[in-house]
Amino acid sequence: MKNALFLLVSLSLVAASAGAASLLEQNAESAVLKRLREELKIDDATRALRIEKLEVKALGEKRELVTASFEAGPAGRFRLLLQGPKDFLKSTAPRAVLFISAGFYSGTRHLELLSGDEDQILIGFEYSDDTKGLIERPEQFARTVVQVPARLMLSLRWAQRQPWADPSRFHIMGISLGTLYLPVTLRMLQAEGFDFTSYISAFGGVGIRHPLYEVLRLSFGANESRLLTELISAVTTPYEPMWYLPQLTGRKLIIHGGRDAVFRDSSRKDLDRLAGGPKMTCTLIGGVHIDLWKEKEVNATVKILRAWLKSETGPFSFPQIEDKGVDCVTSTL
């Protein structure tokens, strides 16, 4: 019964994405963005968006972690993890924001690693309010994967409109899987006038199929992962970064792992080639795909990111990376 339900859900989602995929083949980006808004029911989801629950946890004397659970009608349920100065949700003082979309099961660890500026607000996007259910129910995983751009769009829009967020210091970061969804999301937002200070792509690339399989096989069997990959890849064709990177405006920072096996060399090179400027890239020679327990890659990324955020929109030069085996080969493109 579970497999039959999953197949039914997936086939219906494939049919829904066919129209947008056809428009992409005609290079009609504006028409694609309009079609995606309709298929994802962005307007209905926007009207339905509400916070179901807020949980606040003190992080020492000066900072706190807020877990905000959202419900958005056709876009489903998702969470944001917000780390900032104590009582920042009540504040009207605009602060710098770093919005992060990483992997499915990142939790709060990446916020802890990136925390440095006591006055900065970090926001971690969680794809669902039920990460356990994503593992146990393939049909829920498939539907969530399709809904991600809508959930990201609603999250970014909501965050930037808060009185504590400074739109002139609003940075957006994709890590690993997050780099696959942010280009289409940001292009949909830019079409309605949304702006941001910079986009950071870390350990990502172009092409959803292979990274998706690598993620799936950690939770499902080999056969189920292959089936899920084929079906979800067909559904998410309109989300492929290659369609949107050339038109994505704004300042960009790109960080690669030179031995990343999740995003292969061709995928990384396509990202560098397609991403419009102004942009700067750093390939950590010897660096593998990032995980929170891989200290060399994490330490190098945090050091580069902090220097980037400190520069705001001014001149930037990559800091010296001292960790053996992850030297930074840089370029200005």
Your description of this structure?
A 10-stranded mixed β-sheet has the order 1-2-3-5-4-6-7-8-9-10, sandwiched between helices. Helix 1 (2-25) packs antiparallel against helix 2. The radius of gyration is 19 Å and the shape is globular. It has a single domain (2-332), classed as 3-Layer(aba) Sandwich (Rossmann fold). Helices cover 42% and strands 23% of the residues. It has 333 residues and is of the alpha/beta class. It contains 11 helices and 10 strands. 41% of the residues are buried.
Summary tags:
333 residues, alpha/beta, Rossmann fold, ten-stranded mixed beta sheet, 10 strands, 42% helix
Q: What order do the SSEs take from the amino end to the carboxyl end, as H and E?
A: HHHEEEEHEHHEHEHHEHEHE
**What is the C-alpha radius of gyration, as a whole number of Å?**
19 Å
Estimate what percentage of residues fall within beta strands.
15-25%
Given the helix and strand composition, which structural class is it?
alpha/beta
CATH homologous superfamily grouping = Alpha/Beta hydrolase fold, catalytic domain
Poorly predicted segments:
4-11
The level-1 CATH class: Alpha Beta
* Average of pLDDT: 84
| DSSP strand tally | 10
With helices defined by DSSP (H or I, 4 residues minimum), what is the helix count? 11
By CATH, the topology is Rossmann fold
Q: If classified by CATH, what would the architecture be? A: 3-Layer(aba) Sandwich
**Percent helix among the residues?**
40-55%
Major beta sheet, specifics? 10 strands, mixed
Strand order of the largest sheet: 1-2-3-5-4-6-7-8-9-10
Give the end-to-end Cα distance, rounded to a whole number of Å.
52 Å
Number of domains: 1
